[in-house]
Design goal:
The complex is a heterodimer of chains A (390) and B (366). Chain A has 390 residues and is an alpha+beta fold. Chain A has twelve helices and eight strands. In chain A, 29% of the residues are buried. Chain B is 72% helix and 0% strand. Chain B contains 16 helices and no strands. In chain B, helix 6 packs across helix 7, helix 7 runs antiparallel to helix 8 and helix 11 packs antiparallel against helix 12. The longest helix of chain B is centred in the middle third of the chain and has 29 residues. Chain B is flat and about 110 Å long. Chains A and B meet through helix 1, helix 3, helix 4, helix 11 and helix 12 of A and helix 2, helix 8, helix 9, helix 11 and helix 13 of B.
Chain lengths: 390, 366
């Protein structure tokens, strides 16, 4: 903006001195306020007998956590408990991002479908979910939908080993048997071979102009080699099925209702937003371009890959970056339904020792870091995927 | 003219082929275009056939509309008397019943003002003043002033509280957001970096942490003898949070104003401050009205989070009502009603946002 950069020559002028003075005043006032807040806080903390500093992180937590990815018991330290919370936040956010993206893409495509019924159903889905508070959706899923599921003893069995009950969802747990490490190495090697073939096929096509099915060929190599390795190493993956025993299921992968409702709620809510991004991305590409490509005899798949996607993603990716960031922040609603994420565990710690300043500072640091990583990652993707704007 | 001349007579137009017009053609074009379309349509129809009748049955056919909890349990369907019984509590919380007319007057004023705004017949400046006065009026009416009985803020609740939080939040945060955006866009380096830090910090963390901060940490910041009640602290938190988002929206509008306008104004000798206040900001705001409405919807939805820091807003009252022992087991009705109310308010706002987009400056350009 030419307006912001004044063209006055550098050096001492009345304007420069005035501007510098006023900025100095603003800075002094802000620093003064911060100082007053700081001294007030010190005084208040002393008055209430609350410690300050991060020593408490080493103290024994004594708080139970219902759902943890790493081994935890109440004798561990506060710092470790908080780490459990961070991991839970990351875990649920990651899964939600993956599923919301898949569902969101489907919803977005459905919104622009020629099929009237499909488009209408998708529109109703989007307009409903976007116009309800996420917290209401979470409460509804947690205390109406999941609570309506049967008791574990009469659990719904979807397919063998997958059970739905009001105490949670149960899935088979994959178990590594003897020979798994050899199989894993072989599978990675097959992946490398498949990718190598794909790259070679692309350069071959560029050099000679002859068709070479790089993607499908590479995928075939990977699948076939991995299959051979799986059989050759004696099927090293087995699954442990959940079994109903006593009052609940034992074994298998258990998904607690709190986690399940948080995940489902986040996915449904965010997918509605991602669906809108996808829709506006697709609609931002002029219909004429697609018609022209079709008229030239370009196949539908190539039109999608080379004409539609590069231009649609230019609109979709930045908006979706914001939605991913919102999703991570929204995962903090876990506290309302009792899933032990970072905010929920931090809140409990504040309740125990009153060290709100430290905990809130830690929350902010973690969320800001996650958001920074998301925007760096998406900016990278943006730079890779987008065609150069002319 | 010779008698032998044959004048060209076009045959009358034949009607369009029957597979191109009418309901059959519509079905074919929109539902059964090819085998893929047909499969999708059939699957969707099957899903709808499995879910919709049950839902309608529960909501209307087997539902109880008059009676008490026992009638409901016998009928087995939805229990709407539960909502009727709890209606006052859901709307106003534990606000004294006999003073219920005061929030009601405010609600009517709000609805009238919203209708006036939607018709677009009243001058903008009048509307702005009216919207600025409304929350003050509501605060006095609900809280009690001019000799009316005072009602403590701890008694405010329900939908009334949700709307108050959102309304005050929006109305105070827009000017604040404009200032932040101006600071970020035009400010000297120090001001600019302070604004950026504020905006990005608040946008980078969840609202809950800010609400926790307001309810737990803000009392620590203030001098020991200065006590601000919980509601006001949370309102301040919502205003600051909202202002950060509003600032980003407004910044988008500032960027949309061509540099030529400010240059022209400066060349004509209009001062910098006046250029910004009377030329840039009004146009920028006009540009970003639709996303500002979007932020209003978001803020209204976000008010539901205050339940986590102990205020009983609409959702909080819904949750409370569903735990009432006389009406145990009717949670679904409570949440369906809550969903209906939230959806009605948010969806009307979003329709208004689209309307603004249609009327707005960017629509005319196309």
């Amino acid at each position: 903006m030419s307006f912001t950069k004044r063209t006055a020559k550098p050096g001492f002028s009345v304007q420069n001195i005035g501007s510098a003075l006023s900025q100095a005043v603003v800075l002094t006032v802000v620093l003064g306020i911060v100082y007053v807040l700081f001294t007030n806080t010190q005084e208040n903390l002393a008055l209430r007998g609350i410690e300050s500093g991060f020593e408490f992180l080493d103290h024994e937590a004594g708080l139970p956590i219902g759902d943890s990815l790493i081994a935890y018991n109440p004798t561990r330290s506060y710092g470790y408990a908080f780490l459990v919370g961070i991991l839970n936040t990351l875990f649920v956010s990651f899964l939600a991002v993956v599923f919301a993206t898949i569902l969101g893409v489907f919803v977005g495509i459905a919104r622009v479908s020629h099929n009237w019924l499909l488009a209408k159903v998708a529109a109703i889905y989007v307009e409903t979910l976007r116009n309800l508070p996420l917290l209401l959706t979470l409460f509804f899923i947690y205390s109406v939908v999941l609570a309506a599921l049967p008791h574990p003893r009469a659990a719904i069995e979807l397919v063998e080993g997958v059970y739905l009950s009001k105490r949670g969802f149960y899935l088979p747990r994959p178990m590594a048997e003897a020979g798994f490490s050899i199989f894993l190495t072989a599978a990675l090697a097959a992946l490398a071979l498949g990718l190598g073939f794909w790259r070679w096929a692309v350069t071959y096509k560029m050099r000679t102009g002859r068709p070479m099915p790089g993607f499908w060929g590479g995928l075939g190599i990977f699948v076939i080699l991995t299959g051979i390795a799986y059989l050759a190493t004696g099927r090293p993956i087995s699954s442990e099925l959940p079994v109903y025993a006593g009052f609940n299921f034992k074994g298998g992968l258990a998904m607690k209702p709190e986690f399940a409702s948080l995940l489902i709620g986040l996915v449904l809510y965010t997918a509605a937003y991602i669906g809108e991004n996808v829709r506006s991305g697709i609609q931002s590409v002029q219909a004429g371009q697609i018609e022209a490509a079709n008229a030239l005899g370009v196949s539908n798949a190539v039109v999608t890959r080379k004409v539609l996607l590069p231009q649609a993603l230019r609109v979709t990716i930045p908006a979706t970056t914001n939605d991913y960031a919102s999703l991570v922040k929204n995962s903090s609603l876990a506290v309302a339904i009792g899933y032990p994420d970072m905010v929920s565990i931090g809140g409990t710690i504040i309740g125990q020792n009153g060290q709100a300043v430290e905990i809130i500072g830690m929350w902010m640091a973690v969320y800001l870091t996650i958001n920074l990583i998301i925007s760096l990652g998406m900016n990278y993707l943006n730079a890779r995927v987008l065609h150069v704007e002319r | 003219m010779d008698d032998n001349t044959i004048i060209f007579q076009p045959a009358p137009a034949r009607p369009a082929p029957s597979n191109r017009v009418g309901p059959r053609a519509w079905l074919r074009a929109n539902l059964f275009g090819g085998w893929k379309d047909t499969v999708v349509t059939l699957i969707l129809l099957a899903i709808l056939a499995l879910t919709l009748p049950g839902l309608v049955d529960w909501m209307f056919v087997r539902a109880t509309f008059f009676g008490d909890a026992d009638n409901c349990r016998q009928a087995g369907g939805a229990c709407w008397p539960f909502i009727v019984d709890k209606f006052n509590v859901l709307m106003m919380g534990v606000y004294p019943q006999e003073l219920g007319w005061r929030p009601a007057v405010c609600a009517i004023a709000l609805i009238v003002l919203a209708a006036l705004t939607y018709t677009n017949r009243v001058r903008g400046i009048v509307l702005i003043v009216a919207w600025a006065i409304l929350p003050v009026f509501a605060l006095f009416m609900i809280g009690g002033a001019f000799g009316m009985r005072e009602v403590d803020q701890s008694l405010w609740g329900g939908l009334m509280l949700s709307i108050m939080l959102a309304l005050v939040g929006v109305i105070v945060s827009i000017p604040l957001g404009v200032l932040l955006a101006l600071g970020r866009y035009y400010g000297p380096p120090v001001v600019k970096s302070l604004c950026v830090a504020f905006i990005e910090l608040l946008r980078g963390v969840p609202l809950i942490t800010i609400l926790f901060m307001a309810s737990v940490m803000m009392p620590l910041f203030l001098p020991p003898d200065l006590v601000i009640n919980n509601l006001l602290r949370i309102q301040i938190a919502m205003i600051l949070f909202s202002a950060a988002y509003m600032a980003e929206v407004v910044r988008g509008g500032l960027q949309a104003i061509p540099a030529g306008q400010t240059e022209a104004a400066l060349a004509l000798g209009v001062s910098r401050a006046r250029t910004i206040a009377f030329i840039v900001v009004p146009q920028a705001l006009r540009h970003v009205l639709p996303p500002l409405v979007g932020r209003c919807i978001a803020l209204f939805k976000d008010t539901s989070l205050v339940i986590i820091v102990g205020l009983l807003d609409f959702l909080g009252m819904i949750k409370n009502a569903s735990l009432d022992t006389t009406w145990l087991g009717f949670q679904a009705e409570a949440y369906v009603f809550a969903a209906f109310v939230y959806w009605l308010i948010c969806y009307s706002l979003s329709l208004y946002g689209r309307e603004l987009e249609r009327r707005g400056p960017s629509a005319q350009k196309r």
